[in-house]
Amino acid sequence: MIAAHLPILQVVVPLIAAPLSVFCRRGSTAWALTFGVSIAALAISMALLGQVLDRGTLSYELGDWAAPWGIEYRVDAANALVLLIISGISTVVLPYARVSIAHEIEPHNQTLFYTCYLLCLTGLLGMVITGDAFNAFVFLEISSLSTYVLVAMGAKRDRRALTAAYTYLVMGTIGATFFVIGVGLLYMMTGTLNMADLAERIPAIGANRTLVVAFAFIVTGLGLKLALFPMHLWLPNAYAFAPSAVTVFLAATATKAAVYLLLRFLFTIFGTTFPTFEPTLTYLLLPLAVIAMFAASTVAIFQVDIKRMLAYSSIAQLGYMVLGMSFATVTGLTSTILHLFNHALMKGALFMALGAVVMRFGDATIDTMRGLGRVMPWTMAAFVAGGLSLIGMPLTVGFISKWYLVAAALESGLWPIAVLVVASSLLAVIYIWRVVEAAYFDDPPEGVTAGEAPPALLIPTWTLIGANIYFGIDASLTTRVAGEAARVLLGTAS
Amino acid sequence: MTATAALALSLLIPSVGAVLIALTGRHPNLRETVTLTTAVLLFADVVWLLSMATGGGPAPALMIGEIMPGLSLALKIEPLGMMFGMIASGLWMVNSIYSIGYMRANSEHKQTRFYVCFAIAIASAIGVAFAANMFTLFIFYEVLTISTYPLVAHKETPEARQGGRTYLGVLIGTSIGLQLVAIIWTWVATGTLDFTKGGIISGKVAEALVPVLLALYVFGIGKAALMPFHRWLPAAMVAPTPVSALLHAVAVVKAGVFTVMKVMIYIFGIDFLAATGASTWLIWVAAATLLAASIIAMTKDNLKARLAYSTVSQLAYVTLGGALATSMGVLGGSMHIAMHAMGKITLFFCAGAIYTVTHKTEISDMDGLGRLMPFTYGAFLIGALSVIGLPPMGGSWSKWYLMLGAADAGQLVIIGVLMLSSLLNVAYLLPIVGRGFFATPPDAAGHGVPQAQAVGAAAAPGRFLSGIREAPVFCVVPLCLTAAGCFVLFIYGDALYRLLEPMVGR
Amino acid sequence: MGVDDILGLFNYWMVIVLMMIGLYTVVSRGNLVKKIVGLNIFQTSVFLLYISMGKVTGGTAPILTGKPEVYSNPLPHVLILTAIVVGVATTALGLALVVRIKNAYDTIEEDEIQAADDEKEFGDAAAAEDGRR
Fold it and tell me: Which of B178, B194, B326, C109 is deepest in the core (most CB within 10 A)?
């Protein structure tokens, strides 16, 4: 019985828990509630993925209002995987957050932190699971608004968190509003908001100026949300100054949900036959993705703050994802979706390791990193392992992503792009190795004694590192799901 | 079944060894015992594999697991890999003895890290040797790069760091930037990466693009040190000498040329290369590297730097052998992997022994040392003769076959290049021995002391003259063993030939 | 472009004008409160877009009386209620952030905040440089 209602439970459980958590008097109670919800969400998303792999696309009609009039939740391989990423990362981050947040946020704010966290989780899960374009906007805003608050909570460590959150708010609102303009124009032309319905009606209308404008607004709006170069300016500071646990969660999930929405709109709703589809992919997304790969990686090399360095690296990695989708082939989309998953694992682990450093020293500049190989051996070992994954060494998930991306480029006959992909990943070698050298070959500053991060931080970090290696050695599951998702998006599923 | 087990053991033994070494780090004697035991066990295991591989029947194979659909981690024995495995494991055994002597005599720091990384490096070298497909090979190739980086930068001085950066930069840069592209291209074009006799490329890649693919491979295999991607090898000489000896005369560089050979034989196929002439350009690049590196070697006064450039040059022989795309060339090149490994490790051992005793690194400071260290210098002479390719040393066989291969391919100019190069080898290696035995030690003569010699010696040179003053026995015995090995390889050159022959057999 | 395009699409022209005013304010003003106001105007233009598109000439409120009647499409109006709520929340949060920024920086002018941050960062960097020596 309950199995039939899983799609709505996925969203409603954290949504109901959010106001409940306000009543928790102590941060730790709120944490326990949040953690429980997150585990439930993870269980639900695993069950959903299992159902999808067994039986194909699931459709759930809210309040029994038949689609396309009511809101439909629609789960296929593509969003089932993204749901799993979001709830899975959340479940790994929370044990980490308990200690890290207690350290970084004033006690009286901790309860509210978890409320916002739950709302953010709700929003992300909702925007991924929904089959309704306007509903996606609402959830997008739920997640964004709570994210602004979460970022601003880094103000105790550094007041720049406030300005970062403010900038993020302005840019994010513009992005979301663009998105909703696009949705409105779509509704104007088709009279429907249901994604599946839209997907049927848009090709019937064919080339139409209003639809093209809607397309442009949606791509731009989502591009802002996913920090597509050159609309990435909000991201580095937001990641750098947010509380560590928030950075981990956002880096691993928030932009991923936006990437998913872009995929959904481009491939499912507008479809490959839409007149501006191909030019946009070839002449807009592909060049921007390549520029992002190089520009952001180059900027990352010169960052003093390592958290910000990784933030720029995220922009470059988002470039890889957009590049994969710009090929519009099964392999290309597979690489994008694989990288959604894999990048969540590697960036999550890296930001966790940095969070441990921040907790001990108050910041994570390159100077702080000096000699940390001896001071915090486990933390730094995790950083190195995560870094190798980011570079794309074999036996890590980064390699799998890169393999598929290069294969996709070669399959499409774009061998210069393949060369650019590998060349840009060499930039990652430089910025990661800069930290490794400082950590292992410099002596720690005077007076710094060896002292590892608490297990509450190390265990989640190493869990993600373990996942990095496990899915790097046995990628059969992830590649299968990603391949299935790619076929669903391209409409070539069996 | 047993063959599969033996294959699994060949990876497990050094891996478990690495863990045990890390655990016993606090007790140096125990740790060294573990190292030696692991080395002996591994060698025994590889010999066991050899006996099974040559005993007829299907080649031992082991499937470890599938990483991505169609791309699996798998091992399989074939002649070339068998030979490389034998060399790597055998010389690791000898090298372990030497390392113990060297590291203790020079009281190097962080020895546990050193031995752990060494064991991992050997495990990955074995993985490279026995890889059943290019995918597996690439994975172990990268692990080898990463695990040897701490060894190269071992001293942690600014020079060591700079060397380490160059090492990592060139090797990772080429392998990810070029080789990975080549591998994925192959995969996309052919749908397989299994090493297959006769190659897999034929008919799958447009003929005009085959040379491009080949270039991506041979330059992408940075460990083969083909110019212009050779800079990492001299840079890596900042490492302690045992590292230079095993890794940069045997495991790492030979993994490079071994991979080049594997690619030529099992990915492209020699006949295909010969038929399309896709590798003709490579003959000239290899020949140019070979001569240029020899000439640079002559200008180097630092002994290890000279040996490093000599290695660059000798590696080009192997690539050349493959590029000739004739049976003889390929056999000669492959044999040269073994011959040069044995010769060059001897030379490096000697360089390390000289450094341990006198702390001298420059050749111009080494006048007269031969009389103090007769064993070391004797071994050096034998190693040098083998590298030059003079009978009765192993190196003569490989160069002989290479020349035959060049003749088969109709590349008469290459025969000239090989002869010229041998002369250059004589010119940069033998003077070292000559100085050692015949030059007058600076102080004894009392005049003509170059200024550079006034500094750097660990003790007053006068003390040396009292008689033989050799390196610790742990250093001397290994270098005598490998010197003897050069001779043994000459006698058993035929056995090696027969081992490798099936690889090109019709 | 005839009169019909201008007058007939009057509502869209207003939307565009408002949208541009809003965006321009967000981009050009250094005062953080004014930026929020600009953002509001920008969002309002979208509200108008939605509301006007549901309007049917001569239509009434969509109350079903059993007789066939022309009525406006209610769905955009309902949607935009949600969007208005989102807009209010955004404004509230934005203003709350401005208050916090005012407390932390003692100013709400963008360039002054930037200057304060630069001073802190480069001051820090210079101090770190000294530490290294």
Answer: B326
Residue in B closest to A400 by C-alpha: B68
Domain end (from A242, A275, A308): A275
Q: Is residue C95 part of a domain?
A: yes
Pick the last residue of a domain from A223, A245, A275. Answer: A275
Q: Do A184 and C105 touch (CB under 8 A)?
A: no
Partners of C117 on chain A (C-beta within 8 Å) are 160, 163
Give the tokens for residue B122: 């050997």
B165 touches chain A (CB under 8 A): yes
Residues in chain A: 494
Average model confidence (pLDDT) across chain C: 83
pLDDT per residue over B410-435, tens digit each?
888 888 888 898 888 888 888 888 88
Give the pLDDT score at C25: 93
Q: What's the domain count of chain C? A: 1
Q: Is residue C65 part of a domain?
A: no
The single-letter code of the amino acid at A2 is I
Domain of A162? 1-275
Shared-domain flag, residues A176 and A255: yes
**Which secondary structure element, helix H or strand E, spans residue A403, and what is its range?**
helix A397-411
Residue range A107-127, pLDDT digits in tens: 888 899 999 999 999 999 999
Q: B264-316 pLDDT, tens per residue?
A: 888 888 888 888 888 888 888 999 998 999 999 888 888 888 888 888 888 88
Which residues, including other chains, have CB under 8 Å from residue C32's CB and lie 6 or more apart?
A166, C98, C101, C108, C109, C110
Q: Which domain holds residue C93?
A: 3-60+70-132
Percent of chain B with pLDDT over 70: 93
Our CA-based measurement puts residue B111 at a distance from the nearest CA of chain A, in whole angstroms, of: 16
Q: How confident is the model at residue C123, as a pLDDT? A: 64
C79·A134 Cβ contact <8 A: yes
Q: Is B138 on the interface with A (CB under 8 A)?
A: yes
Query: Residues, chain B, total?
Result: 506
A316 and A271 within one domain: no
Under a CB-based contact definition with an 8 Å cutoff, are residues A243 and A157 in contact?
yes
Q: Is C98 on the interface with A (CB under 8 A)?
A: yes
A365/C104 Cβ within 8 A: no
Q: Does A217 lie in the same domain as A256?
A: yes
Same domain, A31 and A171: yes
Q: In chain C, positions 105-124, which contact chain A (CB-CB < 8 Å)?
A: 105, 113, 117
Kindly state whether residues A239 and A315 are assigned to the same domain: no
Contacts of A134 in chain C (CB under 8 A): 79, 82
Instruction: Tell me the C-alpha distance between A418 and B139, whole Å.
Output: 19
Same domain, residue pair A315 and A268: no
DSSP for residue B302: B
Residue B79, preceding bond cis, omega within 30 degrees?
A: no
Tell me how many domains chain A contains. Answer: 2
What is the reported pLDDT for A148? Answer: 94
Q: Which tokens hold the place of A100? A: 């890290």
* C98 is a domain residue: yes
Do A332 and A305 lie in one domain? The reply is: yes
Nearest to A455 by CA among A105, A33, A98: A98
Interatomic CA distance for residues C120 and C131, integer angstroms: 16
User: Which residues from chain C sit within 8 angstroms of residue A181, using beta carbons?
Assistant: 46, 49
CB atoms A394 and B138 under 8 Å: yes
What is the per-residue pLDDT for A124?
A: 95
Domain identity same for A222 and A162: yes
**ipTM, interface predicted TM-score of the complex:** 0.88
- Which residues sit opposite B133 in a β-bridge? B194
Chains touching C by CB (3 or more pairs below 8 Å):
A
Return the CATH number at C13.
Answer: 1.10.287.3510
Residue C113 belongs to some domain of the structure: yes
Taking an 8 Å cut-off on Cβ atoms, the answer to whether A475 and B156 are in contact is no
Q: What is the pTM of this model?
A: 0.87
Contact B161, B268 (CB under 8 A): no
